[in-house]
Design goal:
3-stranded mixed β-sheet, 3-stranded parallel β-sheet, 19 helices, single chain, mainly alpha
Length: 520
């Protein structure tokens, strides 16, 4: 007969299957009761995303053999056993000699069992050490125990085991994750951690898995040099948990643009403090020339003289922020903090970044433009103080929200007005922001931004620059929304350069305008 014969991958000889003695750890492959116990362990952990638990369960249910852990290699953790040799020179593999637990770890190729000496190694009536070493999974499966001081620091182990979270890719649920659960089941009668956070693969632009052998790998150091560490971290954090992410250089460009925007927004807001003689460091006010370098270099940031923080409970914030639009912005920001906090608690870092970034662009593109004229003092000192305090409060919270994603630029701009690190400042408080909002919700801020967008659209459709004045604008909307618009009308008119703003009741927002002549 003719039949296919498997060949060695890198050779030219057919394979011959030879049975040999090996060591196994029972994993439920041949024991229905143990299999169910390990499936139950999976239900005792929180899976992110939740559907990944089914991969674990399917793997356990499909096992039909135990876990082979012995390997015939030169390097590795040795199997800590010896075997007696009878007087005839035959090895009795069925009666292994176990070391005393107090003597572990031992190397059977160098150490001798109790009752023997080295001269008896390999001799009739003597002993022989097990020649095999353990598979790497057999030791890496004890990572939680080793890292928490198992057998070396009982106090640390008691405080930190089981661990809180295992972050890993989804492809090794069946190996690293499962093998770690097996060891925790036998060694600790429990689970090794409370949460499993599964990430995806990084794919090439054609959505193929990156591999050195294929030659489609992107070297991280090149990206760090070109775009900066913050941009690379932004790109990585944009991938959803459990989802494979295709490499896209455009995302790195967006991340770098975001980092530079945070620098420039911080520069603008903090420079307003100079108008109040708050005493900001010169570096924070005049850093425009080297703004982009801060997002590329992972430099240490020196401590500077601090301006007064706003969002940590100082009375200055409560007394200064009295404008409806400023308070409404803080109410919106409180909602963003709540959303980011809930996302982080659910291990959905991508959503936390998404919500923070969405608010930030609205803050820079809309709110700063809405309050800029007032912040410069053109509506009086009290109005200017409210605008500046609101901007500083929002900036401080945004720097904290961005710190996990843009750690270097966040630290840079934080040090412009704080003596401590943003990474030790704590997470922002949504309750404190709502306290500063003083009963105002997010509606005024949202409506002001919508009307400003509509005014900009009128100019854009007329192919006129945004600085073009508007002689008369008419806003049609529901009466409730028009009443809210009246609270922020002055800022909307200033930002849109509207001379006269009329309103009319209707079913939905609609804005018409008569454009003036652009000033030369």
């Amino acid at each position: 007969i003719t039949h296919p014969v498997k060949f060695f991958e890198k050779g030219d000889k057919p394979l011959e299957i030879v049975a040999s003695r090996q060591w196994y750890i029972r994993n439920g492959g041949r024991d229905p009761q143990l299999r169910q116990a390990l499936i139950d362990r999976g239900t005792q952990m929180n899976w992110v995303p939740a559907y990944m638990q089914s991969r674990y369960q399917s793997w356990v249910e499909g096992l039909n053999g135990d876990w082979l852990i012995s390997r015939q290699r030169y390097f590795g953790v040795p199997i800590p056993l010896w075997y007696p040799i009878d007087d005839g020179g035959d090895v009795n593999f069925d009666a292994p000699i176990n070391p005393d637990h107090a003597t572990l770890p031992i190397d059977p190729s160098a150490d001798t069992p109790t009752g023997f000496d080295e001269s008896q190694r390999g001799e009739p009536g003597g002993f022989i050490g097990d020649p095999d070493v353990m598979d790497t999974w057999a030791t890496s499966s004890l990572t939680p125990q080793i890292a928490t001081g198992w057998r070396t620091d009982d106090t640390l182990h008691a405080l930190t085991y089981p661990m809180d979270m295992r972050p890993q890719a989804h492809d090794i649920i069946r190996t690293w994750l499962f093998s770690t659960v097996v060891r925790a089941h036998f060694n600790n009668d429990g689970t090794p951690w409370h949460h499993c956070a599964l990430s995806g693969w990084i794919l090439d632009p054609d959505r193929k898995k990156m591999s050195k052998s294929v030659g489609n790998v992107v070297v991280p150091t090149d990206l760090l040099e070109q775009f900066g560490a913050d941009a690379v971290r932004y790109w990585a954090a944009s991938g959803r948990p459990g989802t494979d992410t295709a490499f896209d250089e455009q995302q790195l460009k967006i991340g770098r643009r975001l980092a530079v925007k945070l620098l420039n927004a911080s520069k603008f807001v903090l420079a307003l403090d100079a108008m109040d003689d708050v005493g900001l460091p010169e570096r924070a006010i005049n850093n425009g020339a080297d703004a982009t370098s801060a997002v590329t270099n992972e430099q240490s940031v020196a401590s500077h003289h601090s301006a007064t923080p706003i969002s940590n409970g100082h009375d200055l914030a409560g007394t200064a922020i009295n404008n409806q639009l400023d308070r409404s912005l803080l109410a919106r920001l409180a909602d963003t903090v709540d959303e980011a906090t809930a996302a982080f608690e659910a291990f959905d870092y991508a959503r936390a970044l998404e919500r923070t970034e969405s608010f930030f662009w609205s803050f820079t593109d809309d709110h700063i433009e809405l309050v800029k004229v007032r912040a410069y003092g053109e509506q009086g000192d009290e109005a200017a103080q409210s605008a500046r305090a609101g901007l500083r409060c929002a900036l401080e919270v945004l720097q904290q929200l961005f710190a996990p994603f843009l750690p270097f630029v966040s630290e840079e701009v934080w040090r412009w007005w704080h003596d401590t690190s943003v990474h030790t400042s704590g997470w922002p408080s949504a309750d404190r922001l709502r306290e500063l909002a003083n009963g105002i919700d997010s509606t005024p801020s949202l409506i002001a931004a919508e009307v400003l967008h509509a005014l900009r659209r009128v100019k854009s459709e007329a192919k006129q620059p945004l600085r073009t004045p508007i002689t008369t604008a008419t806003v049609t909307d529901t009466q409730d929304r028009l009443d809210t618009l009246a609270l922020v009308e002055a800022d909307v008119c200033a930002a849109g350069r509207v001379e006269t703003l009329n309103t009319a009741e209707g079913d939905a927002l609609n804005v018409t305008a008569v454009l003036g002549i652009e000033e030369s």
